[in-house]
Every structure is written in structure tokens, then in C-alpha cells.
Specification:
The protein is mostly helical. The protein contains 14 helices and eight strands. The radius of gyration is 26 Å and the shape is elongated.
Length: 401
């Protein structure tokens, strides 16, 4: 286990090794190529790996001569600029057939010139550019999630996710910042945790996009499970690391004996752990707020004639007694109970209880299979590789490899 970046780095290394094997065989079997003897004697894996890295960290895409496609190119001098947060200030001038870069600020004589590389994660920075940017606001941690085919409601949940424009299975991302759960991940977690009544109601909803909004008030029992689930998954991800965040910080403070590569790796994983810890605390807080609020009125706007009314006319945002029609959201027996019986208004201890029994909780089947973990087979499904212009050299071995 460990950091998700390890898999990406391993793929990169594997591609480079396959390319090297291809060229090695080519050089050692060719007989009619001038200078082949020199290549035979000097072509090594270390040299090839360095060459690939030198090109990868400097290549960029520019329009082709006819403008029909983007091609990879090296841009001398400009590619020596290091990264700093800011905005993209480089454009390709097709009329002059050159790249033009505007300064991010006024640089003094002798001062280093920086450019903004783009909104990239630290995994992308490390693998494709060879550095880690501290406190990177664009950094994320990937998390693979999916609706299990063994879930009795997999068809209905999949239909609702497609209606929301959210993938049924794939790689989501936990983000850096005050709201670490982005809208599509939030919607997935809520759909993932629904029972049959909730799924059917939101399928009929005129505005299912409410599921992407953090401040949308929803059924307490059903949607508190969503926060419990992600809290547990985040705890599992943190446990998969061989060292704790505290140990990483201590190691970075005592850098003696660390190689530059080891330091970069620890900086990367420490940053990812900080994102996970922050997201875990956020999930605990959101679950606590949901249980305290106990509001179940918004779902009522998703059925019947109330779909045609405005939020104000439907009473969204008002104090509502959880009675009668207001409690139609969950659709379960608990909707007919009092707020106290449903746990509304009770103190919630956001303690390590969420971490205890992690494995069993992930496999729980509740209320019609609302909390199904992906099956072992589904966990093994390959998620499509992220493609970027900076990967072409290392991810596309020559034909015949």
C-alpha cells in the first residue's frame, strides 16, 4: 500500500524500462547503422533514464504548422524557468511562430524569473517535473470508488449518478483546502448511501443537482451514512501508509542523511496525509452538523407538484417541524419517528469510533444495500490513466515494444 503516487511513478519507470529494452535490442541486433558500435558500448539504462527525464521535464505542446494538432517541442531558455504560484502567462503566437511569455511581476536585474506551470498536483509535479511544491492549493489525493454490482440498487444508483453527470466507478479526488470534498464526490457519496425510497425520490427530482451542494439539507439517517463512509475510507487510506504524518514531519525536520529524492518523497506523502487528515475532520464535522440540524424538508421539493415551486415557496431554508410531508425524504420507517428517536439534536462524539471496526463497516449492507463497498474484482479494475502533454515521452513506448 502507501501513497497513490507510487503507482504512477512505477508506471512511469516501467514504461521507460520497456523503451530501453526495445532500443537495447535494436542497437545490439542492427548491423547496417553507422555509429552502432558506439551505441552498443555506451547505451545504458541510467543514461537513457536521465535522457528521458531531461526531455519530459522540458517538453511542451505547441500547434503544428498547419494548426491541425498539438505537437511536442522543446523551448530553450523559457524551459529553464522554475515554477511559482500565479497565472498562465505564456501563449503561442501562430503568426510569429513562437511562444510569448509575459512576466508575472516586475523582476529586478539579477532576480530569478519564475513562471506558473499550471494548476497541477504535487504528484504531477514530482513525476513530470522533479519537485514538490509546499502548500500546493491544487494538490489532491485520488480515491477509487464505485457502485458495486452486487448492490441490489446498483441500477437505480447508476442511473441517478449518470443523471448528475457523475461517474459510477472511477477515481475521485479529495482536495486541499477548507472544503476538501468536491461536488461530484459529495454527490457520489450521497447516492452511494441511499436506500430504495431515497433513490426513487431523487430519480424523480426536478433538481437532483442539489445533491452536489454541501449546504443542502437532507435526510439525517441516510446521508449521515455518507459522511461515516468517507470518514472510514479516509482512515483506511491513512493506515495504508507505513509512517504517520507526525513521523514524516519529524524526519523532514531532521534532514541529515536524507537524499534529495527521499526528501521529495516524504514531502509528497506528508502533504497527502495532511489533505486526508483535514478531509477526515471535515467529514466528522459535517456528520455532526447534519445530526444536530436534523432538517428533512428539502427532499420534499423533489416529488409531486412542489417541483414547480421556487425554493422559497417550498420552504427551503426555513425552520421546519419534521412532520408529515416534510419527512418524506428518507422514505424509511425512521421518518415516522420523533426527532429524538431519529437521533436529531443528540450530541455526537467525533472520536476514533469511526476508525474502530473499519473493515466490517466498509462491508456493511444497510437499508437495501446502501453502503456497499466495491467488490474485490471491481477494485482491481483499471482506472483510465491520466493523460497530459508532459507524459508523452514516457508513456508511449515505441511501436513493437
Amino acid at each position: 500500500m502507501g501513497d497513490p503516487a507510487y503507482d504512477e511513478a512505477l508506471k512511469q519507470y516501467r514504461h521507460i524500462a520497456r523503451q530501453y529494452a526495445y532500443f537495447y535490442k535494436l542497437f545490439h541486433t542492427a548491423t547496417d547503422v553507422k555509429g552502432i558500435l558506439f551505441l552498443k558500448e555506451n547505451f545504458s539504462f541510467e543514461a537513457y533514464r536521465w535522457a528521458v527525464s531531461a526531455v519530459m521535464t522540458r517538453q511542451n505542446t505547441i500547434p503544428s504548422a498547419d494548426g491541425s494538432q498539438l505537437i511536442s517541442a522543446l523551448i530553450p531558455m523559457w524551459d529553464m524557468c522554475n515554477h511559482i504560484n500565479g497565472k498562465i502567462s505564456t501563449e503561442f503566437n501562430v503568426h510569429r511562430n513562437c511562444s510569448e511569455c509575459s512576466a508575472l511581476k516586475h523582476f529586478k536585474r539579477g532576480e530569478q524569473v519564475f513562471i506558473f506551470y499550471g494548476a497541477r498536483t504535487n504528484t504531477e509535479f514530482l513525476i513530470h517535473s522533479g519537485f514538490v511544491w509546499r502548500n500546493n492549493i491544487y494538490d489532491t489525493v485520488p480515491i477509487k470508488l464505485g457502485i458495486s454490482k452486487s448492490d441490489p440498487l446498483s441500477g437505480e444508483k447508476s442511473a441517478l449518478l449518470k443523471k448528475l453527470g457523475v461517474m459510477v466507478q472511477g477515481m475521485f479526488h479529495v482536495e486541499n483546502g477548507e472544503e476538501p470534498i468536491p461536488p461530484k464526490l459529495l454527490a457520489f457519496l450521497r447516492v452511494f448511501s441511499m436506500d430504495i425510497d431515497a433513490v426513487q425520490m431523487w430519480l424523480a427530482c426536478a433538481n437532483p443537482g442539489l445533491l452536489k451542494q454541501t449546504d443542502t439539507q437532507l435526510d439525517v439517517e441516510v446521508f449521515s451514512r455518507a459522511w461515516t463512509f468517507i470518514e472510514t475510507r479516509l482512515a483506511l487510506l491513512l493506515r495504508s501508509y507505513p509512517s504517520s504524518l507526525e513521523n514524516d514531519r519529524k524526519t523532514l525536520d531532521e534532514t541529515a542523511g536524507l537524499t534529495s529524492n527521499a526528501k521529495l518523497a516524504i514531502e509528497l506523502t506528508a502533504g497527502h496525509k495532511e489533505i486526508l487528515v483535514n478531509a477526515q475532520a471535515y467529514a466528522i464535522k459535517q456528520r455532526s452538523l447534519l445530526l444536530h440540524a436534523g432538517a428533512t424538508n428539502v427532499g420534499a421539493t423533489c416529488v409531486g407538484a412542489t417541483d414547480l415551486l421556487s425554493p422559497e415557496e417550498n420552504g427551503i431554508g426555513k425552520e421546519v417541524e419534521p412532520t408529515g410531508g416534510a419527512t418524506c425524504v428518507g422514505g424509511g420507517a425512521t421518518d415516522l419517528q420523533s426527532p429524538e428517536e431519529n437521533g436529531i439534536g443528540k450530541e455526537v462524539e467525533p472520536t476514533d469510533g469511526a476508525i474502530e471496526g473499519v473493515a466490517s463497516r466498509l462491508l456493511d449492507r444497510t437499508a437495501g444495500g446502501a453502503v456497499n463497498a466495491p467488490s474485490a474484482e471491481e477494485e482491481e479494475e483499471e482506472v483510465s490513466d491520466a493523460a497530459s502533454s508532459g507524459e508523452a515521452m514516457a508513456t508511449e513506448p515505441p511501436e513493437g515494444v
